[in-house]
């Protein structure tokens, strides 16, 4: 009898040990804290007279040109720019061949004051009804001071459409910011997913705030005029500055940067979604109310039901404040949003959540903490196959410098972390595979430091994989027989 009991307990122990071993393999307990730390340049803004901020010469010349997606599905673009001398026109001439601008669209002008700063004339113009997968040329302004640019529309919404996204956060306008931007521009990235904190103009006072928004607009034009940047707002966009009488949140940001929020039935430009190629991208606002029954909460609840993984297999969420972050900087700031939204991310099998805010790089394993319960005491994140990968790329290189102190020891959920500057790219290959890279700025070179294959969360299930196989087999057989 005793023997049997001993055998049983041994067996149980064995089962328990192998369970622990297995789950540690799953979580990949051995997370990496990279010791690489190098900030090449001091964290100071590029001086105002630097050529990166230079405005082209000419009367009423368009400058600070930037574009973003203008509708839900990628057949429209919003073109924005600033002029200094005259309030109009807000016209865009465009077409599909260079120097032939057969089409025109009329936008509208807005302007604002911030303390004693008066903005230039800010123009936003929607051009829609575009063809997919087509290069468009466009012209702003007239006569000697006209300027020409181009952009490429995405392929039509299709589950196997390939597409190359860049992810940048917390950019600012230092020499490190310039390095990040130039490295990104060397990549094949076609659209930037920007996770908030654009200009860091709010680090300045009085009329310099508006001025530094202008320099930032000029600084990023080299990329933003030619490909859409998908905007998410960060804390540096809030600009609550009562000491100079400025108390309307997001005033500069909302005048300057538009989003196609109405197309996704949102009631605010701060949260919205777009579909592009094979991706459904949801943009959330960390600094707008999101608790149960608020507009953002109600919108997200509805929007998640509209996601169709058969059409757009890739479900990507952008937000400013990371939900999982093991850096001392902003530690646990994302906890409130985690408590509200995490269970939805699991239920809808979000592929990846990109955030910024923390000026370092970090990637998590697939984990969740939806069992958290203040009564029972359940409180640890656990491996969860349905969970997204959480990636923090607040490492664009702004004035505030790096967040160099990670918490010790590295938590089980943290797969890779490093305090240096860089950007990420996500290259979607088809409905099942995407290739992800984090590229560190390293002595002026772009170095791919953390990379992996991201497997789609929806199409990874066995049933769907079998269905996919059958579908492909049928189409292959079909091709052979015709
Ligand atoms: C905006 O521009 C118009 C036209 O020049 C001008 O009359 C108005 O005062 C400006 N408003 C602000 C808030 O700067
Ligand atoms: C939390 O734990 C308590 C006590 O174990 C349990 O009664 C309750 O159902 C749990 N709540 C949730 C939402 O799981
Ligand atoms: C998707 O792309 C990956 C990597 O290029 C490839 O291995 C895989 O077979 C592709 N899957 C389908 C369904 O085409
Ligand atoms: Fe931030």
TrEMBL record:
SUPFAM superfamilies: Metallo-dependent phosphatases (SSF56300), Purple acid phosphatase, N-terminal domain (SSF49363). Its cofactor is Zn(2+); Fe cation. Gene3D superfamilies: 3.60.21.10, Purple acid phosphatase-like, N-terminal. It catalyses: a phosphate monoester + H2O = an alcohol + phosphate. CDD domains: MPP_PAPs (cd00839). Residues 164-361 form the Calcineurin-like phosphoesterase domain. Pfam families: Metallophos, Metallophos_C, Pur_ac_phosph_N. Keywords: Glycoprotein, Hydrolase, Iron, Metal-binding, Signal, Zinc. Residues 1-30 form the signal peptide. Residues 387-447 form the Purple acid phosphatase C-terminal domain. Its EC number is 3.1.3.2. The keyword Signal applies. One of its GO terms (biological process) is phosphate ion homeostasis. This is Purple acid phosphatase. The gene is LOC108995652.
